[in-house]
Amino acid sequence: MCGIVGYVGKRNSADVLVDALSKLEYRGYDSAGIAVMEQGDIVVEKCQGKLDNLRERLAVHKPQGMVGIGHTRWATHGEPSDINSHPHGNKRVTIVHNGIIENYLEIKEFLLGQGYHFVSETDTETVAKLLDYYYDGNPIKTIHKVVNEIRGSYALGIMFREFPDRIFAIRKDSPLIVASGEGENLLASDVPAILKYTKNYYLMEENELAEITADQINFYDPHMNPIEKEVQVANFDMEAAEKGGFAHFMLKEIYEQSKAVSTTILPRIKDGMPDLSECGLTAELLKGFRKIFIVACGTAMHAGMVGKYLIERLARIDVTVDIASEFRYRDPILSEDDLVILISQSGETADTKAALHLAKDHGAKTLAFVNVKGSSIARDADMVIYTHAGPEISVASTKAYAVQLAAMYLLTFELAYANGKISKEECRSYMEQLTAIPDLITKTLEVKEECQFVASKLLNAESLLYIGRGLDYALSMEGSLKLKEISYIHSESYAAGELKHGTISLVTDQMPVIAVATQTDLFEKTVSNIKEVKSRGAKVIVVLKDGMKIEEGVADHVIKIPQVENIFTPILTVVPLQLIAYYTSVLKGCDVDKPRNLAKSVTVE
Ligand code: M6R
């Protein structure tokens, strides 16, 4: 979704803004722009397309000044175009915006009646014009008046010509941080944008306002009273947000999975047992749940699918997994005895956030698995298990999924033990096996070349099937999503036993099948399904565990993951599936880290 930056300091702001925007490219965008205070005038440069297009424009004319705001736009209202790009406004007030103004048509009609003209199709332009309409020489009062009239979500960076040494910011339901450096201060949608300049930043709460000059930041609460805020220190540096010698962020992040999983699990082991007490999860609390709902989107929802199989199998508690955008409108039957788990890398996904609020309204206990510290979902949930993946820049989630699974194992074991479904010895044994997973992830990466080879065979496919049973099925959903989102090859994940009820009619020699068959108890049944597709001409790639064998002629290619107990295979099997997707995308020449139409953090419905 859109990225916002702002700068006030001692450097040429155009350079800082473009550099900071480049660190937000992962969010997904289709146009970019900046506004700079140049000798008392607000000068805007903006255009459709990638940041390079904007750089080209700036090479011709770069506004000079040390105060400015910038934006990368992911189109919602109006197509990607120069006109619809941000900043929006006029000579007096100019803004950048991330979010959606729901009542913009109403406001637009009112402003048209007041003689305003609109040039873009965006909702943002109405906010800019409304600021202009209410402006009375006091920016803070004006901004408050406007946010009291708009409905929806917004993170706003605002410049007033009459206040040439400062920028203003306010947010609701869209992320925004304010960063403080030495003689320079910044504004950004996310931490990677500020790391080159400072590690210190402030998290903006709903409708708090910031007034930012080069050497001062004033914060105001929603009633316009000045407030003090606690400074946060980013716990990762520039390097963590750079490619570090890898061709793409996605590959780097696949390789970081082992470390990320260690960081997520090791601090939560006490005396060989899982210990989530720092997250507010006590044995007493874990005993009482009637039902568990897991609610999330995309990859995070797939981690939830694995969670369902794990929790039901080991803790014997009924689990329902929901896509957040469905959950929020399906009127779920929730009670105070239920636990609702929200999974989100960004902690800002609009549908997941709405699902969290719905669960809270029904009195259910809420637990969030979140990667981004201080994000909305982390702040609003009753309890939070932070996953420690570090910054994930590639739009396609990889290490975020691995740590979501790691946290799910911890929770499952703790739930199963607290509910008397496994003994202390069994729990310790599971924890021991979990502790070995990071090394096994590293070992699994040895299949890299085989995955490259498989990718070379998939290039011309128009469509693919992923099949599996049980945990293998849950996991293959993620494999399928990875492939389609970055290589643009259509794929579906199917329960292997369900194929013959319709979908097998699609199988021909033009439809490769990736079969995951790591569950020893289901192996023979899955092999029968593999034979069914093989005999209809499909090229079959089979993923097995070390030590498993498949008859000659059934698979065209076999990839093996290390030997682990059945419940642990998803966290290893995902590695070859990620690599197959990655190499397919590279070989097809796609934009691996920034696939078309996608955004890293989906802050709109
Ligand atoms: O930030 P979230 O985990 O809430 O994001 C949810 C999905 O948008 C996300 O998992 C998406 O499906 C992946 N980036 C795809 O790789």
In short:
This protein has 605 residues and is α/β, with parallel strands linked by helices. It has 18 helices and 27 strands. It has three domains: 3-240, Glutamine Phosphoribosylpyrophosphate, subunit 1, domain 1, CATH 3.60.20; 244-435, Rossmann fold (3-Layer(aba) Sandwich), CATH 3.40.50.10490; 442-589, 3-Layer(aba) Sandwich (Rossmann fold).
Report on the architecture of this protein.
The protein is 35% helix and 22% strand. By secondary structure, the chain is of the alpha/beta class. Helix 1 packs antiparallel against helix 2 (51-60), helix 9 packs parallel to helix 13 and helix 16 packs parallel to helix 18. It is globular and about 75 Å long. Residues 297-300, 344-346, 349, 352, 395-397, 485, 601-602 line the site of 5-amino-5-deoxy-1-O-phosphono-D-mannitol.
